[in-house]
Amino acid sequence: MLLLVVVAAGVLIVLQKRRPEPAGEWVGRALPPLEVGGWLNTDRPLATDDLRGKVVLVEFWATWCPPCVRHMPEVVEFHERFASRGVTVVGLTSESAQAIETVRQFVERMEIEWPIGYDAGVAFNALGVRGIPTYVLYDRTGRSVWGGHSLRGLEDATVAALAKQD
C-alpha cells in the first residue's frame, strides 16, 4: 500500500511539472514605448517600430538586484541560442544616467551584446513592472505571449512564438 502511495505521488509530481504555466498578468499586452534616457550596445536609439515583425524578449533588471545578476548568465545563454533564429533581446533598467558607468561595466563584465536602455522608468510604468527581474516575451505582432519573474517556461514560449505564423 505504501508503495502504491509513493508511486501515485511521484506520478502527480511529474504531471504537475509538465503542466503549462498559467498565462499570467504579462500576456496579451502591447510592447511598451521604448522611451529611455539612453542606450548602450546600439548605434542609434531603439524604437518599438524597429522591433515590429520580430520575436522580442524584454528584460527589466538592475545592477543592484541580486536575482537579476544571478540570472543574467542564463539570459546571455538564451541570447546566444536564439539570436540566430531571429529573437531579439532588449534590456531595460531604471538606473539613471548618473549610474551609467556602473551599468556599462556590468554589461561588459557579463558580455551582454543586446541593446540596453537605461533610465527606462516610462517602460517600467507602462507595463506596471514593480519587481525585478521581469521578463516579457513578445510575438511578431508585438503582443506579449509569456512573462514572469523567472526564466521558467521561456524557451518553450519562444519556440512556440517562432513557430507561429502571423
Overview of the structural elements:
By secondary structure, this protein is of the alpha/beta class. The chain has a single domain, classed as 3-Layer(aba) Sandwich (Glutaredoxin). It is 37% helix and 18% strand. Strands 1-4-3-2-5-6 form a 6-stranded mixed beta sheet, sandwiched between helices. Strand 2, helix 2 and strand 3 form a beta-alpha-beta unit. The longest helix has 17 residues. It is globular, with a radius of gyration of 18 Å.
Poorly predicted runs of 5 or more residues: none
Number of helices: 5
Helix and strand composition category:
alpha/beta
Total domains: 1
Q: Give average pLDDT, whole number.
A: 88
Spatial strand order of the main sheet: 1-4-3-2-5-6
Superfamily at the CATH H level?
A: Glutaredoxin
What is the radius of gyration?
A: 18 Å
- From the spread of the alpha carbons, the general shape counts as globular
CATH topology: Glutaredoxin
Biggest beta sheet summary: 6 strands, mixed
For the record, what CATH class applies?
Answer: Alpha Beta
Q: What share of residues is helical?
A: 25-40%
Distance between the termini: 52 Å
Q: How much strand?
A: 15-25%
CATH architecture: 3-Layer(aba) Sandwich
**Total count of strands:** 6
Q: Strand-and-helix sequence, N→C?
A: HEEHEHEHEEH
